[in-house]
Amino acid sequence: MSKKENGEVHEFFEFAESLVKQTGELALKYYGRGDPQFKFDEDLVTEAELAIREFLGTTIAERYPEHHLLGEGDDQTAYRHGERGFQWIADPMDGSANYQAGIPIWGVSLALFKNFWPILGIFYMPVTGDIYKALAGRQLWVNDKTITLEPEVIANNESVLLTYSRFHNEFGSTFPGKIRNLGCTAAHLGYVASSRAEAALLKYVHIWDIAAGLILVEAAGGEIRYLDGGKFHLNDYLESQKVDKPLLAAPAGEHTMISQYLQLL
Asked: Are the beta carbons of 211 and 234 closer than 8 angstroms?
């Protein structure tokens, strides 16, 4: 990478970090305002997501008018190599059920790609103040501390496997540790990347759910693979289709060990 390109990447990185923090501050203005009579206050979440999405889109368009933004609720137009160059992929509010319930595990995720190649990923949790950020393939920072995954996982009764909400209806498990669903895919991936969890099983996701988290996990020395061990390529889903098979995020080389504990029902 040339000096000019490296400077451009760091400019994008600083812009993205500032943007997710500003977006998080906007989201906090709506946080905790859910109607307690409703299990899920759709009006609140819709109002907040619309405001957040508009802020993200407007801010990126003003700074980088030639860039494209892809995210939940946006115009899902297929991305074509060479036509748009830079593409931001955003989830303005990952963990919306937690958000409306006043549970602090939710956040804003943002990733940047250039012609299908990842550049950066950031996930910010406004309530806790935690920020996970990575330059693709280079380094993961959690709250400005550099993080690298341990190369070998030994599952025991203190290990943590993070899963999705329908897990117990679709899988049997002999995993020896704790199995948890925290209701926020990006947080799950951040926790795997930072060794707070051994692995995360993902299903029913789109690229905006996992784009930033994938970059975080890979920068720390992990991988996201299909549960059967096959390679997963985010580029295969840049037309916004749902990922059609279960995925497992884990330290590189540990997918076989962890997947042996999981059986599809």
From this structure: yes
Among 52, 54, 64, which residue's Cα sits nearest to residue 88?
A: 64
Q: 172-195: per-residue pLDDT in tens?
A: 999 999 999 999 999 999 999 999
Rounded average pLDDT over 117-122 = 96
C-alpha 15 chain-centroid distance: 18
Contact 41, 163 (CB under 8 A): no
Q: What is the pTM (predicted TM-score) of this model?
A: 0.91
> For residue 93, what pLDDT is reported?
92
Convert the pLDDT of each residue in 134-175 to its tens digit: 999 899 999 989 988 876 677 889 999 999 999 999 999 999
**Phi and psi at residue 30, to the nearest 5°:** -100, -15
Q: Give the chain's radius of gyration (CA, Å).
A: 18
Which of 216, 194, 213, 200 lies closest to 255 in space, CA to CA? 200
- CA distances to 171, 173, 183, 250, 261 from 227, rounded to whole Å, are 12, 14, 20, 11, 11
- What are the CA-CA distances from residue 116 to residues 26, 82, 172, 234 (Å)? 30, 9, 36, 9
Do residues 111 and 189 touch, judged by C-beta distance below 8 A? no
Handedness of CA 195, 200, 206, 209 (dihedral sign): negative
CA angle at residue 11 from 139 to 212, to 5 degrees? 45
Whether residue 102 contacts residue 94, with contact meaning beta carbons closer than 8 Å, is answered with no
